[in-house]
């Protein structure tokens, strides 16, 4: 599952990518090519479980990120950027809201809402052009050969075009299962979930007015939005110890890093949740599709566990933190035994019983 990071030039997207992945980009040529990387999922629950169990090994879940070329006149006119975006499973759009005279802005001034709307319009326009070309081709084909599937697709394309002409993304369009199958292989961008990271200066990290300005648009377009300060996150990343990082956050009045929020929103956009396995040997975080049942989660750990699944022993992260130990959970009836139909919840701690 890949999240593509996009944005106009000088928005801070490269800085965020470097902090998340640890990949330092020094080659200017890479600005015109996708740069892949992986990021640890930042989750304070994992850190607390490690503190509690003091395991020999700790393994965080990871997220595939791709820094995509900056969206500017050249890359947009060539169209390659849209093909690269269409290969992603979700998109993180970094929008600049910080003022810095030393960092130029392609449009001559900082206006986060203007830039947000402009990029959204480009994405909608890409899908609209594709649909228009597809309608033209299907119309010609249907005249020559009376094919029912092509007729159905033509009706669907006309429905999609009417939607896109209202400057609305396709993720807002209700599609049946059959309609989804018809377009599954097509490079539609606005069907994908979108997270907007508004990159602000340190002084604006707690400025709710900035996010409020995006609220109506984001709610209407099914977009998740958050504030992040790439500059502050870079400073946090340079600190050596967890204690120093926590002290820095407290001085700024921040409960968790913006990158923790960002990775959580990326998981949400991909429809993924976290579950954990714990013990003296290892504490590990795993990712699974929301609404997945216990055998599917077992299969994420190892295919044998899914194949030979018997039951899942489950306890809840919040209840473990409240009661302090597995022994106390058992005493209080908070240790659950679940079967094949159990739907795994975010934050579940699982122990899989199986026989192969």
Automatic annotation (TrEMBL):
InterPro entries: ATPase_YchF/OLA1, Beta-grasp_dom_sf, GTP-bd, P-loop_NTPase, TGS, TGS-like, TGS-like_dom_sf, YchF_C. Its cofactor is Mg(2+). The keyword Nucleotide-binding applies. It comes from the Bacteria. It comes from Desulfobacter hydrogenophilus. The gene is ychF. This is Redox-regulated ATPase YchF. Keywords: ATP-binding, Metal-binding, Nucleotide-binding. The keyword Metal-binding applies. GO terms for molecular function: ATP binding; ATP hydrolysis activity; GTP binding; metal ion binding.
């Amino acid at each position: 599952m890949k999240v593509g990071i996009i944005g106009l030039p000088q928005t801070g997207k490269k800085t965020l990518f470097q902090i998340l992945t640890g990949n330092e980009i020094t080659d200017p040529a890479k600005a015109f090519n996708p740069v892949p990387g992986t990021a640890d999922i930042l989750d304070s629950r994992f850190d607390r479980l490690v503190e509690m169990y003091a395991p020999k090994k700790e393994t965080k879940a990871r997220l595939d990120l791709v820094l995509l070329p900056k969206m500017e006149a050249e890359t947009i006119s060539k169209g390659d950027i849209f093909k690269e975006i269409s290969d992603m499973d979700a998109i993180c759009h970094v929008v600049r809201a910080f003022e810095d005279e030393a960092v130029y802005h392609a449009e001559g001034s900082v206006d986060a809402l203007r830039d947000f709307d402009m990029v959204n319009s480009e994405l909608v326009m890409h899908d609209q052009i594709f649909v228009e070309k597809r309608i033209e081709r299907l119309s010609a084909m249907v005249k020559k050969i009376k094919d029912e599937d092509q007729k159905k697709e033509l009706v669907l394309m006309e429905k999609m075009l009417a939607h896109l002409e209202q400057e609305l993304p396709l993720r807002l369009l209700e599609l049946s299962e059959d309609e989804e199958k018809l377009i599954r292989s097509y490079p539609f961008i606005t069907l994908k979930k979108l997270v907007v990271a508004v990159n602000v200066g340190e002084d604006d990290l707690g400025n709710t007015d900035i996010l409020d300005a995006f609220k109506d648009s984001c709610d209407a377009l099914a977009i998740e939005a958050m504030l992040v300060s790439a500059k502050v996150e870079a400073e946090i990343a340079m600190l050596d110890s967890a204690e120093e990082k926590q002290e820095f956050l407290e001085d700024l009045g921040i409960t968790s890093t913006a990158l923790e929020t960002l990775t959580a929103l990326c998981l949400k956009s991909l429809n993924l949740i976290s579950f954990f396995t714990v013990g003296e040997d290892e504490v590990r975080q795993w990712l699974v599709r929301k609404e997945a049942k216990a055998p599917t989660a077992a299969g994420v750990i190892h295919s044998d566990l899914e194949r030979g699944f018997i039951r899942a022993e489950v306890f809840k992260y919040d209840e473990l933190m409240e009661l302090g130990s597995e022994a106390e959970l058992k005493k209080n009836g908070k240790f659950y035994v679940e079967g094949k139909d159990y739907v795994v919840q975010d934050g579940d701690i699982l122990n899989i019983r199986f026989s192969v």
